[in-house]
């Protein structure tokens, strides 16, 4: 009978060493992934900083829940990072070449991602009904509107500068005499308490306020017992089925005289002007809309 020499089994030693090496490899991979995540430009790199997320996307902390992570990875970027890239594009007005360098992808990939997310969000968000029924408007009516209780919406047009087409005919269609530039024009509706309740499609900058009101579809939402507040030059009385409130002064003016303020008993026109400016500033907060939009 052979005595046990006490030497370890070679096979067991190899197995133990192999297990230890596998564990070391796993830990090193985790470190590499962690370091890569810190260096890679994407949502995960800035997820812990509300300030950074706000800067790169204009999304506030309360809205961040909408940026949910997806586990699928059919492209070189995760869907969450594609969304983050698209928000960078809007919030910062980043050039596609710059985004390609930041995200380490080809510029054509950036172009495809921007087009895909634009179409996706247009379809999804465009199907959301944001118009508020008149009875709900009344529930939230500010005290400043007590003299105009039937006000349902404050209408205003906003123009975004765009590249000028090479065709002289197209140039004449999109050229805005108000901006002295080629623009795209949209109609925005704001409830008296400040909620955005209507956003039209974009039209050529030469379109009139009356024509954009006709084509936008807002008229179908208005009823005879409603009232609309508009600026002095917004002439739509003959096409809408409801009452029009219009101040004697232009709402877009930076200041009003004391006499004009006294002539606005509930200061509703002042509040309406404030909402208009707020919405315009929110649009231009996204730097993409404060530059020339490529056609």
The biggest sheet, with number of strands, parallel, antiparallel or mixed sense and barrel status, is: 7 strands, mixed
Taken in chain order, the helices and strands follow as HHHHHHHEHEEEEHEEHH
What structural category do the secondary elements indicate?
Answer: alpha/beta
**Strands, total number:** 7
Radius of gyration in whole Å, from Cα? 29 Å
Strand fraction equals 5-15%
Q: What's the domain count?
A: 2
Rough outline:
elongated
- Annotation field: number of helices: 11
Average pLDDT metric: 81
Give the termini distance in whole angstroms: 91 Å
Q: Are there runs of 5+ residues with pLDDT below 50, and where?
A: 68-75, 258-263
- How much helix is in the residues? 40-55%
InterPro entries: HARBI1_dom, Transposase_HTH_dom
GO molecular function: metal ion binding
Keywords: Coiled coil, Metal-binding
Coiled coil: 11-38
List the helices and strands and how they pair.
Blueprint: H1 10-39, H2 43-46, H3 50-57, H4 79-92, H5 96-103, H6 107-126, H7 134-139, E1 151-161, H8 168-174, E2 175-176, E3 181-190, E4 196-199, E5 203-204, H9 209-216, E6 227-229, E7 243-245, H10 258-262, H11 268-285
Parallel strand pairs: 1-6, 6-7
Antiparallel strand pairs: 1-3, 2-3, 3-4, 3-5
Helix pairs in contact: 4-6, 5-6
